[in-house]
Amino acid sequence: MQNTIDLFRRLFTELLEDEKENTVAEHIPSDQLYETLDLSLKENPLSEEEFEKVLKELVFTTTRTATTGFFNQLFGGRNEKAILGDLLAVVLNNSMYTYKAAGPQIGVEKVILNETCLLIGWDENADGTFAPGGSMTNFMSMLMARDKANEKIRYEGAQKNLRVYTSQESHYSTPKNAAFSGIGRDNVQYVPSNEFGQMDITHLRRMIEEDLSKGYVPTMVNLTAGTTVLGAFDSIPEISQLCKLHNMWLHVDGAYCGSVFLSEKYKHLLHGIELVDSFSYNAHKMLGTPLSCSIIVVKDKKYLHDSFSNDASYLYQTDHDEFNLGKTSLQCGRRNDALKFWTLWKSVGTDGLEKIVDHQFYLADVARDYIRANEDYTLYSFDESISVCFNYKNIPARDICTLLFEHSELLVGYGSFNGQEFIRFVTINAQNEKEDILNFFKTIESFVEENQHLFEKYLVEA
């Protein structure tokens, strides 16, 4: 074991040193991957020296998501206290379905869920669980909505007349989850959005009324707290009233930006969150824990038990259901994703989590200010979002993003809204500072200047 620990320490130390000079790993085209790296599995073992060499090559060429060169996805950075918790979770190797198998780690998960429920304004009747990702928490919310609409479904199978409503800007998991739940992809209604990317309430009301007239059962509305492209927040209070009127389940998918409930300055973006039936957020996004750390909480824990509880005498042999978390989870065996969040929260406090959230909005403001002050840029997004959408010198977004990636300069993605495609720059890495954001733009500008032959057509037109 000591030799393995020493190997890990060497690799990690060398990686940190290399990241200071190379924020983006060397690009390996996918069609050259197996010729470039030795990923093969063979009958005979490698020597320790050969093993270390192969492992180092793999580690050093893997996408670097914790550096100042990574702005591509809705996560990033490397929080040391959260990493400590994740490493300990691996070493302890508990499964979170029973108190017998996990012991005090059950308490770690429960205090996070309880504190989350209290902070969003719910009482002791609320509860929640951890899941492998935002898609899975959205799936769980849909199952609870389905079972609330017709409690016989979980025994007799799904009915064909249930309807789910979600914004056209919502996460792509919604139609998949409708298929998995038996509701059906064709029963997902995509509600148009307004100019800010938020669900249009007038259209939603009209669609519900039309479905009622056709004999459908409006079952669930899925709102988004931080859409994947613009980072928009759907309005909760008025839609909550509509859901109550039609006895519909209301879920808020806060996978991307739901953590704003921890910020006094920005929690108004979730105004009315205490009115919803379920809410999910990813601590591996705004809060910077290692992947994955996804949480769903429900206002009435009855629905968790109704949809996910199942007895198994070989498993649940001691303690009360309150401490046997497999009774309220979609999974049976489940790794401990709570500890890394707990070590972070415990080390910095709720005030520290608030600072992490607020800092990302500050970085986004820095980016927007820079864009607005430079005529070569066009801004497409709005304030109070950590998604900064823009184009540079009218160069097509997908071209510049792809070339930056292939030349190992920056990792940043592109998105589209209302027919306009643009670079989507996310400021979710809370370890970044103002100079890192400014350097991002300087890198783009230098890259275009040094590689004018790649962009000649667009620069001439501009």
Please provide a brief summary of the model.
The protein has 16 helices and twelve strands. It is of the alpha/beta class and 462 residues long.
By DSSP (H or I, 4+ residues per run), the number of helices equals 16
- CATH class category of the domain at 84-343: Alpha Beta
Alpha-beta classification: alpha/beta
CATH architecture of the domain at 84-343: 3-Layer(aba) Sandwich
Structure explained in plain terms:
45% of the residues are buried. This protein has helices spanning 2-21, 33-36, 48-61, 80-92, 99-102, 104-119, 134-149, 153-156, 173-181, 201-213, 237-245, 302-308, 338-372, 397-406, 434-450, 452-461; strands at residues 70-71, 127-131, 162-167, 188-191, 217-224, 249-254, 278-282, 294-298, 377-379, 387-392, 411-417, 420-426. With 462 residues, it is of the alpha/beta class. The chain has 16 helices and twelve strands. The strands form two sheets. The chain has a seven-stranded mixed sheet with strand order 2-8-7-6-5-3-4, with helices on both faces. A five-stranded mixed sheet has the order 1-11-12-10-9. Helix 7 (134-149) packs across helix 9 (173-181) and helix 7 (134-149) crosses helix 12. Strand 9 and strand 10 (387-392) form a beta hairpin. Among the domains are: 2-64; 84-343, 3-Layer(aba) Sandwich (Aspartate Aminotransferase, domain 2), CATH 3.40.640. The protein is globular.
